[in-house]
Amino acid sequence: MINQQKIENKIICSYCKSEHIKKDGKRNTKNRDLIQRYKCLDCKRRFVLNDGFYRMRNSPNKITLCLDLFFRGISTRSIQKHLQAFYPQNSSWVSIYEWVIKYSNLINNYTNKLNVKAGKELMSDEVEYRRRKSHKAKLGVEHNWFVDVMDTKTRYIVASNYMQSRTIEDMSKVLSLAKLKTGEQVNVVTTDGLAGYPRVLKRTFGLKSPYQATSRTRSKIIHNIVIADERGFNHKIERLHNNIRARTKTFRGFHGSLYSAQSIMKGWEIYYNFIRVHQAIGCCPYELALPELKLENNNRWLELINLARKNNF
């Protein structure tokens, strides 16, 4: 796991990994303006840094604009029409969709490695979705699930996954990631009455019953089961799911591969944690959950892509 964001901005050679580098002019590109070029003093080769947009035919600002519009609820075809008014070289909706998939996964590979400063309670819940296996198929609709785990103090989505079914193995992967990112900070995990949760929590956090706790219990957390008609309502995570439904209802169900649906939901998690200001806490959830992470650029999509590329290099 990355110990928050102490990133060394050292420039190393793309070929021999040497740190003996000097600037060697700038490369003029058609759509990305001037790009700094470097020369290695050891192997004598020239290169440009891969900032996440290497060999892309469109500028980083244009690509991240499309990401932001998409996760704010604009369809890819509407974004394409929007670009026609501002960029002479337009992009197809297919390219925009591919950018969403590519950069959602790139950023997620980075943010999934960050340790979270969490509160004492996590909430986990599931949302059912329909997915067609093909755009043209009228049949073959598959019922899938989006499972997420949220820290109630910071409202940060600690872990999530879009999965084919709610198996013990699949749900354990989500809760295991939440355990890995929060460490020993959590005392309570709140869920609904789904029968599989006790087994999942025993595998991941360990489980201590609030009614039958004994000195022989090796578990560390309490499983708090909340059902709407009994002891209240999981309003924090249900409010989160209302936001998710508001965005995904325009899809009329997901289409295509499971991988693309997973990528889109990972992108929405990034948007929720790092881009959108949460009304209840007055800031983005990452500002409380990741206090050492300082995103100073107004274009946080661009900054996150650059950080992801540096840490995956």
What does this structure look like?
Helix content is 36%, strand content 19%. It has two domains: 21-112 and 299-311, no CATH class; 121-289, 2-Layer Sandwich (Nucleotidyltransferase, domain 5). The chain has helices spanning 60-71, 76-84, 93-111, 168-182, 197-204, 235-248, 258-275, 285-289, 300-311, and strands spanning 21-28, 34-40, 46-48, 121-132, 141-151, 157-163, 188-191, 222-225, 254-255. Residues 3-8 and 210-219 have low confidence and may be disordered. It has 313 residues and is of the alpha/beta class. Helix 2 (76-84) crosses helix 3 (93-111). Strand 7 (188-191), helix 5 and strand 8 form a beta-alpha-beta unit. The protein is globular, with a radius of gyration of 22 Å.
Give a quick set of tags describing it.
Nucleotidyltransferase, domain 5, 313 residues, disordered N terminus, 3-stranded antiparallel β-sheet, 6-stranded mixed β-sheet, alpha/beta
